[in-house]
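In response to reviewer comment 3 from the previous cycle, which asked for concrete evidence that the modeling workflow produces usable outputs, we include below a single protein chain processed end to end. The sequence was submitted unchanged, and the resulting structure tokens are shown without manual editing.
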Amino acid sequence: MSAKRVVVIGGGYAGTRLARELDAVADVTLVDGKEAFFHRIASLRASVRRDWTDKPFISYGKLLAHGRVVHGTATGLDTEDKAVLLKSGEPLEYDVAVIATGAEYHEPGRFVGATVEEAAKAFRDSQERFAAAAAVLVVGGGPAGVELSAEIKLVHPDTPVTLVHARERLLDGNHNPKLGDRALARLRAIGVDVRLGVTVSEPEPGRYVTSAGEAIKADTVIWATGTTPNTGWLRDHDGWLDGTGHVKVDGYLRAGGQSDVFAVGDVNNVPEAKLAQWANAQGKAAAGSIRAVLDGKAPTKPYVPAKMKLMAVPLGPDDGVMLLPLSGQGVVAGAGMAKVIKSRGMFLSQFRKALGQPAK
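The workflow returned the following structure tokens.
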């Protein structure tokens, strides 16, 4: 009997982890519109530092020992004929389909275009933009806004950098307020002007004003205010989506009430932070349930959303803030630990190894 077919739509953190887990037990096809894996964790640094321009791109060439990677874009999912429809017109028949199309990020933390050449050019353009900026405004005080503000200020110390956040504390999505307090102190220590508890508007082109009536000078503005799930291609299955456009899943990460369609990572509505480590965990968990389905059995181990996991926010290569999941609210670790664990290498060697590539 031929191996059961698993089509994974999306080659990000969740999709690649799931594909690797099932490669030895199924006929796996991974579909992605990008010609290489995009290590998004390294993208903000690549948008500022020239020596990081090419580091976020990791070849898919050695990801699967038995399956294949298709460079293409999914345009639909036919659950009656059990086929993933591609923009090229090619249908990919499946026994199990996995939606792992992730979310769309604001520039500069996104893969622009479809090729590595196009995406690398976008990073170089971003680097030049920051180098030429008279003043930079970053809107959003979550992990991306905090990290990017630090990167810009450290590389261009003479450029005024202002960070505006609508909440009263940075990194307010985590469990321990001390993490945001420490990030605030670190940013201000390197000269970032942080404004909390205010929003920003642009009453006329090039003029920015906070809700407190304060003017902010900036010729370069970056919006770091969240992401949008890549689910537009599921327009024929709008009942599968919640009010924010995320795919609704059950406890086993199955989508749309289907027994043979799963959704993992940023694209689904699991109530946990949309970060790489959570996506990785979902990919592994869903692979276990899919193994059961391929064997003609019902899944027995539901995915339990993480109450808290390790969280590290780099503030340049030699600094950062970090939360360890050691108690109810977590323990805020020192900058030295953040540097060793994430800030210096950005998990690049770990993910290159996971995709079968040598460390750089």
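The mean pLDDT is 94. We consider this sufficient to address the reviewer's concern, and the full set will be provided in the supplementary archive.
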